[in-house]
């Protein structure tokens, strides 16, 4: 169900982007909306996907592992969170003109960007509440309502846009973002209210003698009731890491704003398509994250290590297979998805070229998303992920500044890929010291074999796309040929990961 709803949300996200492209093309008006879109992009990362989940899933998992219900934790944290979100939302709406000038100096239509930003600022409140509820439900192993939030969100945007674009233009898309945020909360609220009355205990947790004697979950773990100082020490590194990760988008928009109109739009559409494989791969880690948190809460580090290593391998297979298809069939994919209305052949060519460059960083994006979860699962403050993200951000900024002149949008995409890859390498090297003792050296050969298979598959897809003139046929044939070549090369290279994963899937499908 999580996979089905994730796919449905991604498909509706494509419909949303297709609708914007069809109605407004890739020009000044769409660029203005995409600058305002920076607010929900950052809010989704901080308040739903990363910071809120990394903080609250372990917190809810810990109280559930001890056998207490979630109500005391909710009473102690939710009112403060709502007050903070309200202040941030009001401040962001008031500061919209300044924000637009900082994010996109030289933008062709700043007035429209300011109006759209004031509407999208409402997502700070709604996304924060939606992310909190999602974390509570995931910790209780209830994944369906959280997986449905992007279905509701994108449906709200598309519906509002179609109903109001004739009167309000691209501002209707920003209003749809606000409506979608409200729907995110409403679709989860019944399950959240029902779950507040439940009490859980992890099997075997009641017999732990150190708990009965007043000890922690494992040696050196903080007591169940943390002080405000410790809570702040846990929050700040997570928030800094998350903001640093999303700052890549801010750098992208900053460097692209002075380029010819449409550059921001080409980058955005390329990124949205290219990141679909990453979304599917990280779905695995989203579902298993509460299991890792509970294993650490119960002191079972060996189980946590095995789960993280398996997640990294499976996520790499999914994202590299998807990246091979994106790189090989990029022009056909963009043509099928977007080339209609105001989005013409030149926009297709530019977007497909940028998308191929973006795809070079997909493995890094996935590794960062998968690795950071165990770093923050152990309920101990650590600044290492934020430092690693800062190093990657410096690489991104330097790369963008050096290449945007000669290469334009392609240089920006290359800087993004290089920066996130550096962060992934640093996180993989440091995880054994700072978190779960993942055996990075033993994982590396398998990742290399999978990457070689993906390279061969991408080459096959590229040749096929060049040989088949009809875009729809090329995209369809590529969807068959790329996985076939990927599997054949992976097996020829004796990659043990692929057959073992296929056998695991078969066993689960036919127990």
TrEMBL record:
Pfam families noted in UniProt: MurJ
Record protein name field: Virulence factor MviN
Record keywords: Cell membrane, Cell shape, Membrane, Peptidoglycan synthesis, Transmembrane, Transmembrane helix
Major subcellular location class: membrane
Composition skew (Basic and acidic residues), residue ranges: 203-215
Recorded topology in the membrane: Multi-pass membrane protein
Region (Disordered): 203-223
Source superkingdom: Bacteria
Location within or outside the cell: Cell membrane
Statement: the UniProt record of this protein carries the keyword Cell membrane: yes
Residue stretches spanning the membrane: 42-65, 77-100, 112-135, 147-166, 172-194, 230-251, 273-292, 312-338, 358-376, 383-402, 408-431, 443-464, 470-493
Keyword Transmembrane attributed: yes
